[in-house]
Amino acid sequence: MINQIIDKKSIARATGLINKANRIVTVCHTGPDGDAIGASLAAVHVFSSIGKDIKAIIPDKALDNLKCLPGAKDLVNASEHADFAAKLIKEADLIICLDFNTIDRTGCIADVVQAAKAPKILVDHHLNPNIDATVVISHPELCATCSLLFYFVCGIGLFNEIDRNAAECLLAGIMTDTGNFSYNCSDPDLYIITAELVRKGADKEKLYNKLFNTFSANCLRLNSYAILNKMEVFPDDHAALITLSRDELNKFKYVKGDTEGLVNRPLSIPGIIYSCFMRQESDCIRVSMRSRGSFPVNELCADHYGGGGHLNAAGGEFYGSLDDAAELFRSLLKENNNQYIANSNIKNENI
Ligand code: MN
Fold first, then answer.
1. Which of 28, 115, 275, 340 is deepest in the core (most CB within 10 A)?
2. What separation in Å is there between the alpha carbon of 274 and the centre of ligand 1?
3. Angle at 201 between CA 195 and CA 206, to 5 degrees
4. What are 173-188's pLDDT values in tens digits?
5. Are 147 and 174 in contact (CB under 8 A)?
6. How many angstroms separate the alpha carbon of residue 48 from the centre of ligand 1?
7. Does 142 score more than 90 pLDDT?
């Protein structure tokens, strides 16, 4: 087995809280992704197997492709069942916070979670956790909350309670947060965890097909259209931009998730170091950026699009027309080139 990374004191305190609790809820971030949903459902499978009454609450709808995960139909969507979700949180005697670092990330349930009397255990891999929890288990060096939850479950002595369903949920989170083992996956222990999960029956091929290789015809057409007709490449400035207006999205019957990953596509062009995708929402322009190497898209998003994020993955918003948002991006190309690219070794890192 792998070496435990969670400190003994946290494990002891968490074990005490879990032993005492009968009614447990898990909560996660808005727009729950495979890691948030995978961790929530894995916790349900593991803790229900030791007789706990546990419910997983999500602030809003998860992407359709996550419905394949075992137990997904029992998720409590707080946007649809606000009173029920609030009642569960208020009456819980333990709240497990999964895959977020500040309470406001839980959206519509934030106030209820904040006010709840039950002790909280945080299990999360985001930087700078700021949550008033009884036990804070934070390991930003890990790729996924699901891999941290695996250490946690082993640490509290429940490795044997990880059944096929729990294993599949944990593996789904790891695959999601590493882009199916494409990034954040150089820790050898990750493969030991993966091996254990596959040994327990997780079907990686099925997960790959459901999570990464299932698209509607409209989604495929929208992405092809975006790349064929809407991708601007700025080779001298090592950048690319894709914009999609509301009309264009409507034409292809856009549903949430259809443009997932589109922003990454231009980064496959040799010489392109950063990429921006802008999508017109009803009230603003949603901006997302990705980069390779040390180009800081988080600074770009923070300085010009009221957002932030990680060095290589960030986002923001623009209040104005799509044309103006795009023009702002184009107007910054030279400045970015001077500031971050021209006199640095970024080019060598990436090309
Ligand atoms: Mn995550």
1. 28
2. 22
3. 95
4. 999 999 999 888 999 9
5. yes
6. 23
7. yes
